[in-house]
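Quick one: structure tokens for this chain, please?
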Amino acid sequence: MKNQLLRFLGFHMLVGIFLGWCFAGFLFYTDYAGIWTLITHSSIGGIAAGLLLMGFAITFGSVGMGLAIFSLHYEDEDGGGGKRQRTSRPWGAWLETMQELKPIRVRTRNRR
């Protein structure tokens, strides 16, 4: 089970990274906000492109893994169907505590 889950998450992470790099490539291709021009005319353009690609890989890979986790089908082992239980305080109990609170007068010094 553990290896299946790791394979499942790893696959979705790689798909997310691939889509992130495709999106970064689209930004480079369209020269959105002059990003390709900035990278190609800079002496450290390779570092800038690498950092951008790494950021997109982390972000889109995490999104891919998150979507994979949320898409898992889950069944309760005990049959589900929780029971409603009364809490110790009713829903309007916070109003009672608000009436117990009283403002405190605070005096400040004149700083001029």
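Residues 2-30 form the longest helix (29 residues).
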